[in-house]
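quick one before i forget lol
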Amino acid sequence: MKLKDQFRFVRQNMKKNRTRVFMTILATAMGCAFLIVLASVGFGLQKSVVKEITERRVITQIDVHGKETKEQGVYRELDDKDVHLFEKVDDVKAVTRRKMLQQEGTFSIGNYQEGAPTFVANFPAEIKAGFELSKGHFPKEKNEVAVGYNFLMNLADKDAGDDRYDEKGQVKAEYLYKDELLGKEINLTVHQFKDGKQIEKTIPLKVVGISKKPTKEWAQDSSVFISDQMLTDIEAFTGTPKGYMLDVNMNKVPEDIELNKNAYDDVKVYAKNMESVQSISERLKEEKYATYSVVNELKEVNMVFMIAKAGLIFIGTIAILIASIGIYNTMTMAVTERAPDIGIMKAIGASPNTIKRIFLLESSYIGLIGAFIGTVVSYGISYAVNFAIPLIIKQAFGQETDLNLVFSDIPLVLPIICVVICYGVTIISGLRPAQRATKVDVLKAMRREV
């Protein structure tokens, strides 16, 4: 019997018992849909978490926090020597380094004032790393500064007091500075205690650049970038490294501040591409540097979700195993009902392997059709879940969720896994009845006895 004849024979027999075959296919489809939808929750949540992590962090960025000293577990801050070493590492695109003014800088223009974090940055390195301006140019002179895109969000009338803030802690629009800031003179006031009294110095600066708007809606940048020469002048006034502010009861700079006066407060290494992040991190770890990158976090997250997805697939497989009972029952009934047909095939010379293949083809038909239907249904359920759950959350809590969650995601590999599992289960379910069919006695079969 040719293979195409075997397929035709299987289809004809399936049509004779449409209801039973339909119910078996339905059970298989439900099992497959359950497996895919259940596992898709793991894939969806992983996609959401990974997206959230990668959106909040530059994927090629490596934070370097310090270098381990001879005393294990103790790290020193980084200096120019470390930066030069990082720049020589293969596949490093840029190394940014910043020194932070060790007191909150108070900036004012007219009657408007705000406190903002103040940094000294190496702009050539910052530009290589992707730092951009929305207006103006980068500082070139000693008294020139660049400010963050959101600097104006807190530059408010200082006479308004606490009334300038709304219930969310944001400055009310009527108290904000509304004029153009670029090209204007802005004063930086720094403080220090000397002889038990607080003294201050006002330094005029010119705003020449405003940074580009952060790509993340939640992010705000109110930083101010001053020149290295300006930081030197501030240190001369305060008499302390990086403008550290002594208090009334302190007349000496802490030892750690003095020891790290030339160190950087923030050092980041940027790889040329994501594939290089891991190798650069490993190289720095070999040199005893404490590093962190989003790739490390992604590895941990992916490991957790891999275990979760494996568990969900296992649970879903149980549903297919339950459906396999129906396949076994259907195939057993088919062997019983088709005993005369089996006897005839044997009488005309059909081999046991041919008979066995016919019944395995039928069980495969049932499994694959059920898997296909289950896959189509699961995609529909996934779409409905992603559409409906945000609406349910909005109705239940009265507001939309801040997180852009994907509750269900079905990658191509998931239906493939389901089809493989389903096919394997259906073959195993049909194997015993198929073997039984090969052992049917010809004479008994012709008398409809099995």
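fyi The chain has two domains: 3-56+301-446, 61-272.
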